[in-house]
Every structure is written in structure tokens, then in C-alpha cells.
Amino acid sequence: MAHVFVSRGLAGDALDRLTEAGHDVDLWTGNLPPHPTELRDHVAAAHGLLTTLTERVDEQLLDAAPQLQVIANYAVGFDNIDIAAAEARGVAVGVTPDVLTDATADLTFALLLAAARRLPEAAAAVTEGRWRSFETQAWLGADVTGQTIAIVGGAGRIGGAVARRARGFSMTTIIVGRNDNLHEALAQADFVSLHAPLTPATHHLIDDAALHAVKRGAILVNTGRGGLVDQVALARALHDGRLAAAALDVTDPEPLPVDDPLLAAPNVLVLPHIGSATHTTRAKMAHLTVDNLLAGLDGRPLPHPAAASKK
Ligand code: DGY
Question: What is the phi/psi pair of residue 243, to 5°?
Fold first, then answer.
């Protein structure tokens, strides 16, 4: 019997498969994620660890978990985990690819459309009693159909799915991979959508220089990772009108404090990281996570190893 620490309750019945397999499950039931010191205490006896992207798995945590065999991240991204440090200790790391691709690409388009057509402002006008008649000049937004979108991070799983949706809107897509000229693409795009994994090389990829390269009036959408964007520079670009809007499902930090200056910038729409938040997607993610845990605890190769994964 192995001991598994599960840092968050999951929807559905996937976690039952751990107990059915005879493992002992220590389920964190707090409303908020475990504090790093609580996490360290709970991993001390763990052979398996289920994390979400809010748990930082670094050398210190790994050193506190001498028996750990497998970490199953309930996400396709794994920038919260020091993969090299885990590998050095023989700890396998698994993720949840594919099952969240469509949900995240759908949300990317929801954000793009909401920002382009100013849905939050228009809806607020209704609930706040400011809708007095058919308005000929209010809430005018940007066209989407036929415009140009830059997909930064390449046409991987989610980037590719966004590109397919963009084609449905007759958009011209510019796929910006690691070796492509980002600033040139930014200068041409009406919409910029971020799908690069967060690594030291992509941290603040969208910095002040990039935000000076964007086409005036472009709209930025980020459903990747908050750390891809320098948020101070982003707030400046919104205040200056260089960007017409930013629609973000991810921020740095998460949660974004309500007094963060970014929230005071014009035309910013921020969601609480809900890219994969559909009933079926989250249930599938839970099963993939448990598949990874069960394999790792049995000493089998993980079905969905982080090393093989690209968002
Ligand atoms: C992921 O899986 O990496 C998403 O950002 C969270 O669902």
C-alpha cells in the first residue's frame, strides 16, 4: 500500500480509484491550497503526490519527500514543478494533455470575442440601468471576422486548436514559434493570443518592447500563463491606447489582488484561470491524473509524462 497526498479535492469519482487500488489517500480538505510548510509536512510520508498548478514543487519540497515516486500534476502545464530536480531524484512527473485542449481553445475565443465586442461593459450597462434605447454610437467594438491573429507559442495542441477556430472566422493566422520574429508578427496582428509554455526563456515574452511593437489598437488574449506578460508594461500599453484591450485567463500572481494596478487599466478583462473548467474536461483531467499516479506507484512508465508534453 502506498501513501498519496492529494492537494485538492477533485470533481467526480476519479480519486476513488486510488483507494480501490488499495492506496492510502491523504486528501487536503482546506478551502485554500496547503501553505508550503503544510505541503512539506504532508509529503514527508508520501509515495505519490497530486498537485495543481498552485503548488510549487521545488528542491526543498522534494527533499522533504524522501519516498516520493510520482507527482501527478492536475494540469497540462508544469511550470510549477522543477522537472530537473524531480528527475535527479528519480521522481516521475505526469500531466493531463489533450483532454483540455478544446475547452481552453473555446475559452480563448470567448475572451477574444468578449474583448473585441466589449461584452463586459455592455452587459454592465444593462444591469446598471444605463441601457436607455438602441444606441447608435455606444459599445462599438472591433471586427473579428477576417482579421489577423498571431498565435504566439506555435501551433501546438492549444495553439493549433485556436488556429482552427480562427479559420472558422476567416481570420489570417500567423503562427509564431520559438524561431520566428515575434515583433514582426505583433506589428501585423489585430489579435495576439499566447500559448507558449512558461519557461525562463518565455518569462515576460510580452514585455515593454513587444508592446511597443504591437499594431495600435490590437487586442491581447492570454490563456497560457500569467508570467508570459510583463503586467506593468501591459497596464501602460492599455492606458496609452496602444492596446485596445487585454483579456486574460491567467495572471501573475494568481489570484490577482483586487488592488493590482492592472485591474485599474482600461479595457482589461480578467478571469480566474478557468480555461479547463468544464464538467467533462475536469473529470477527464482527474482520470488522467489518477492514471499517472497509479502507474508511478506501480513502477510503470507514466502514460502522460511531463517530459513528452507540449501545451
Ligand atoms: C493547465 O492545465 O495547464 C491549465 O492552465 C489549467 O487547467
Answer: -105, 140
Measured N-to-C along each axis, helices 119-127 and 101-116 cross at an angle, to the nearest 10 degrees, of 70
Write the pLDDT tens digit of every residue in 222-276: 999 999 999 999 999 999 999 999 999 999 999 999 999 999 999 999 999 999 9
| Grid cell locating 149 | 491573429
HSE, side-chain direction, 13 A CA sphere, residue 119: 12
Q: What is the pTM of this model?
A: 0.96
Closest residue by Cα to atom 1, ligand 1, is 75
DSSP 215: P
Which of 47, 157, 165, 273 is an active site residue? 273
Please tell me if the CB atom of residue 62 comes closer than 6 angstroms to any atom of ligand 1: no
Q: Which domains, and CATH codes, for the chain?
A: 3-99+279-309 (3.40.50.720), 101-270 (3.40.50.720)
Does the active-site annotation cover 254? yes
CA–CA distance, 251 with 111 (Å, rounded to integer)? 14
CA distance 54 to 43: 16
